[in-house]
Design brief:
Structural class: alpha+beta
Mean pLDDT: 91
Low-confidence stretches: 1-28
Largest sheet: 5 strands, mixed
Oligomer: single chain
Number of helices: 22
Strand content: 5-15%
């Protein structure tokens, strides 16, 4: 926004942001709504949105039509055409609309950006009139919301050391990069009209998010936790590629939607409706699910039975399976169900213990791997499977093995009551952590290649031979990993 010498841009916007973000957007009245220029602006806005709405409906861009209708009703609650569009499709039907083509997106972006510029210029007139900046702050937000790239608008935000995070609005740059553990420029923050974002919002109104390379995070958490989760996801993905070797190519990345639900009840309701009817019996009672058909991972923020797990453990664990496919077998289709499927369960358990240490480096921390502590407790109570039987398991056999209802375990410096313990996943975690830590991590790249082979062949060869280890070495390393677990059976 231009300031015409009244106050330095940095000082003005800083004062506005501090006041608004500290007190919240609680304006008793908006004097600018009485301005004739504002009414003219809204008339142009309504006409523009109506034109885009008609085009979106004609081309069956349902989610775009839904967004435009929703925006129109905020301006004119009596708009009959917008009301008809809102009532036209249910959430499932909104998912079936056509993805907008390049020509529509260019037309939409240009039209909305022009509206954003109009809001920006109206804000200039309010500033020139001497109006308190806090009063017209919503005008600035709407300019950004429509994607205005006006130089003064963007510069004022940067001068105040704030960044625009799309659906999360303006946030302090230093805070953003603290949670992301790196530059925010490596991430993409969708605008409110982004079609992929809308696809989630129509079924999950609280969902907001951001993207890093091939990962699109959507969550009902606030921006701080969302950024922290995305930062940890990016750190784990980079670590896997760097330390274990990667065959992935940036320009061929498949985008995976990652939905993180703050409560398992919301996971049951929303994710349950997204899962195919035939998969719902297997979905029930889970805390995480991968939908290969729609390239979508859905997880609870906290485990439904064992709420003492860390905030990002489940997310990183389930995402690790997709990371492995993307890094070591890019382009591989289908899922792993054959002999050795448990290797991916072990990888999940290992990455549930992924941490960034004090030096800013990633690592698999045995003390943070809760399934490793479970494996130790199971071993101490003689409840692990015989290794020969374990190695021969495919998914059907593994999922048929009854879970241990309750298990006393010490983890995170406290005695825990672990429930619904998956013996196969715990035992696999011990094996994988042992292999990843073997010979100070020298087998990591061979292990990555083994994961890629599993994805391609849906079957696992002899682990010792595949990794060039002496017979029995893998099992021995699993024992070492269990010994290193903090805890074991609780006394």
């Amino acid at each position: 926004m231009a300031y015409h010498g009244r106050m330095a841009p940095r000082t003005l916007l800083q004062s506005v942001l501090v006041l608004v973000l500290a007190c919240g957007p609680a304006w008793a009245e908006e004097p600018w709504e009485k301005e004739a220029a504002f009414h003219s602006l809204v008339k142009v806005e309504i006409k523009t949105l109506q034109g885009l709405l008609q085009d979106a409906v004609k081309k069956d861009h349902r989610r775009q039509a839904w967004y435009l209708a929703d925006r129109l009703l905020q301006l004119d609650p009596a708009d009959a055409e917008a009301t008809a569009v809102i009532d036209r499709w249910n959430p499932d039907e909104l998912q079936l609309g056509q993805a907008p083509k390049k020509a529509f997106l260019q037309k939409r972006d240009s039209a909305l950006r022009e509206l954003g510029d109009n809001y920006f210029h109206f804000g200039e007139t309010l500033e020139a009139s001497g109006m308190d900046p806090v009063k017209y702050y919503p005008i600035q937000l709407r300019a950004h919301g429509y994607g205005s790239k006006a130089g003064a608008l963007v510069k004022s935000l940067a001068d105040a050391n704030y960044v625009w995070l799309g659906v999360y609005g303006p946030q302090p740059k230093d805070e953003v990069e603290k949670y992301l553990q790196g530059p925010f420029t490596a991430y993409v923050f969708p605008q409110e009209y982004d079609d992929d974002y809308l696809a989630a919002r129509v079924v999950w109104p609280e969902a907001r998010g951001a993207q890093w390379r091939g990962w699109r995070l959507l969550t009902d958490h606030d921006h701080k936790e969302a950024l922290r989760l995305l930062g940890m996801l990016a750190a784990a993905d980079r670590w896997m590629g760097d330390e274990m070797g990667s065959k992935a190519k940036k320009d061929e990345e498949l985008v995976t939607d990652l939905l993180v639900f703050g409560e398992w009840q919301k996971y049951d309701k929303i994710a349950g409706e997204l899962v195919r009817q035939s998969d719902r019996p297997r979905f029930e009672g889970t805390s995480g699910w991968y939908d290969r058909q729609h390239e979508r991972v859905m997880v609870c923020w906290r485990h439904r039975h064992n709420g003492w797990l860390g905030d990002d453990d489940l997310m990183l664990g389930h995402a690790a399976k997709i990371m492995a496919r993307n890094h070591f077998a890019p382009g591989a289709g289908g899922s792993v169900q054959g002999r050795g499927y448990w290797l991916l369960e072990g990888l999940r358990g290992a990455f549930e213990g992924f941490r960034v240490n004090e030096d800013g480096k990633g690592e698999i921390d045995p003390a943070s791997c809760w399934r490793l502590a479970l494996a130790r407790a199971l071993r101490d109570s003689e409840k692990l499977l015989p290794w020969e039987e374990f190695f021969d398991l495919d998914q059907e056999k593994g999922e048929a093995i009854p879970r241990v209802g309750e298990l006393k375990v010490r983890f995170g410096g406290a005695d825990r009551d672990a429930k619904a313990v998956d013996v196969v996943a715990a035992q696999a975690t011990a094996l994988v952590v042992g292999l990843m830590k073997a010979d100070q991590g020298k087998a990591l790249k061979k292990f990555g290649a083994l994961l890629g082979d599993l994805y391609k062949r849906d079957s696992l060869p002899d682990v010792d031979k595949a990794l060039g280890l002496k017979k029995g070495k893998a099992v021995a390393m699993a024992g070492v990993a269990m010994d290193s677990a903090h805890g074991g059976a609780s006394k």
